[in-house]
Amino acid sequence: MYNLDTAFSALADPTRRAILARLAHGEATVNELAEPFEMTQPAISQHLKVLEDAGLIVRRVEGTKRPRRLAKAGIEAMDQWLAMLRKALETNYDRLDEVLAGMEKHKKGKKP
Amino acid sequence: MSKMTLSKMTLKTEGDTHVIVTRRFAAPPEAVYRAHTDPKLIQKWLLGPEGWTMPVCINDAKAGGKFRYEWTNGKGGGFHITGEFLELEPYSRIVHIERMHLPDPTPDNHVETRFEADGAGTLMTMRMTLPDGKTRAAMLATGMEGGMEASYVRLEGMLQASL
């Protein structure tokens, strides 16, 4: 079970969202990920650690390199959660449709 | 039903601190606005998942007026929201702040809800602004617990119905 609180907190940072957006295009090394940002490699590594701890990315060993990629399961867990939040709100608004239909009928019934 | 496409809801995050929800309704703005401000009407729909009810719905729908909404799942689970109305423009706009008590209050969520005439119906746009990205993240994650709870309650309902 993924800790969604950790996952959403990890997403609260714009740099980390940009890193995920980059990884959505495919695997990348730390240097490649650091390139677009005016940040030191340790700073980027710190962000990567947060994303990794949140289950959103995974690393692979390739010689001296540690390329990162998106962790499909972690991203899917967050998608599922958002779908559930959406569902709860949709249930409310479906009920509101009924309430509105009832108000309309009531109004019409009152007209002479 | 054909209203499925008409009533499709959108939910998205914007920037670091916003959550935007849109929804169309087959009723004029006046009716949708009233359903958002009249406690008797609110209690009929603002319930979240199946199985939950809102036994307490108090609001003073005027600028500076306070409100308190309490929900329960009838099985000992529940929480409440308190807030204040900042601006009310009948029948087009409501601005309020709210916080959840879990039981400690969450940071204030600033919510602007607009109702625009859209043909014979209404387009509602709700824009939530949280103090910072971390708070938004926590709010989104907290909803998870409610969602999980909801599916269990529904599951129980289905099991009981099949007995």
Describe the structure.
The complex is a heterodimer of chains A (112) and B (163). With 112 residues, chain A is mainly α. Chain A has helices at 4-10, 14-23, 30-34, 41-53, 72-110; strands at residues 57-59, 68-70. Chain A has one domain (4-110): Arc Repressor Mutant, subunit A. A two-stranded antiparallel sheet of chain A has the order 1-2. In chain A, a hairpin with an 8-residue loop joins strand 1 (57-59) and strand 2 (68-70). The mean pLDDT of chain A is 82. In chain B, strands 1-2-8-7-6-5-4-3 form an eight-stranded antiparallel beta sheet. Chain B has one domain (10-162): 2-Layer Sandwich (Alpha-D-Glucose-1,6-Bisphosphate, Chain A, domain 4), CATH 3.30.530.20. Chain B has four helices and eight strands. The interface between A and B is medium-sized, with 31 and 37 residues.
Task: Indicate the low-confidence ranges of chain B by residue numbers.
Answer: 1-5, 144-163
**Apparent shape of chain B:** globular
CATH architecture classification of chain B: 2-Layer Sandwich
Largest interface: pair, residues per side: A-B, 31 and 37 residues
**What pattern of helices and strands is seen along the backbone of chain A?**
HHHHEEH
Total E-strand runs of chain A: 2
Q: From N to C, what is the helix and strand string of chain B? A: HEEHHEEEEEEH
Number of helices of chain B: 4
Structural class by SSE content of chain A: mainly alpha
* C-alpha geometry of chain A: elongated
